[in-house]
Amino acid sequence: MVASYTQLLARRYNGKLDSDADEFIAFAVDGARRMQELINDLLMYSRVGSRGLELETVDTGRLVDRVISDLGGAIEDAGATVTREAALPTLQADPMQLQQLFQNLIANGIKFRRPDTAPVVHVSAQAQSGDWTFAVSDNGIGIEPQYLDRIFVLFQRLHSRAEYPGTGIGLAICKKIVERHGGTMLVHSEIGSGTTFEFTFPARGAR
Ligand code: ADP
To answer: pLDDT tens for residues 134-151?
Structure first.
């Protein structure tokens, strides 16, 4: 209601009041839109914890292909190249959550790009004594070593919204999804050259 009525005010009265009024209405429209975005992301975060895991046999290669296709618009806009290793495993996981996980990581790889470099994101996986370790790597802006722990915390962001839009909830969701499946998540990064997010899925052990 707040969003639709402020948008209605903006449409109907833009230019008919004074310039202060136009500005105030624009702030209200933007605030309502942002509140919606935050609420949606928070609901997603809370659902990852409260819903039971629905484990199924998931072909992660096909799942990553679907995520890449869903992100087609963003990939095209950024001039990005997103690839995956041919051999990705089939494992027991909650397919919706796994999709969310890859979607957040690949979308971040595209978003946090260097201004002068087309984004390149690659998804790979390695077997280690029955467990699988996935990696999503990019050639983006990188993260300073002292902030590497902070990025998984709810609402923590390293940049202003004007530089890179977002709510700061995506990686907290990713970490929770991985942990619910009994795995661990970590990040390696070099400032100015790129970031790799790694997460391990135990062969058996989803919680
Ligand atoms: P959001 O993307 O909404 O800001 P996230 O929780 O996904 O929130 O990420 C938290 C912060 O971690 C980001 O604001 C950014 O500073 C940093 N970050 C995440 N992914 C990357 C990446 N691939 N490269 C560089 N920085 C990243």
So the answer is: 999 999 999 999 999 899
pLDDT above 60: residue 166: yes
In terms of Cα–Cα distance, which of 96, 66, 84 is closest to 181? 96
Distance 172 CA to ligand 1 centre (A): 10
Question: Where do the structural domains in the chain lie, given as residue ranges?
Answer: 2-48, 55-202
- Which pLDDT value is given to residue 204? 62
Q: Please report which confidence band the pLDDT of residue 195 belongs to, taking 50, 70 and 90 as the band edges.
A: very high
Q: Nearest C-alpha to atom 21 of ligand 1 is from which residue?
A: 108
Written as six digits, the tokens of 151 are: 């990025």
Is the CB–ligand 1 distance for residue 154 below 6 Å?
no
119 C-beta closer than 6 A to ligand 1? no
CATH topology of domain 55-202: Heat Shock Protein 90 (3.30.565)
Question: Dihedral of CA 159/192/103/132: which sign?
Answer: negative
- Residue 127 pairs with which residues in a beta bridge? 132
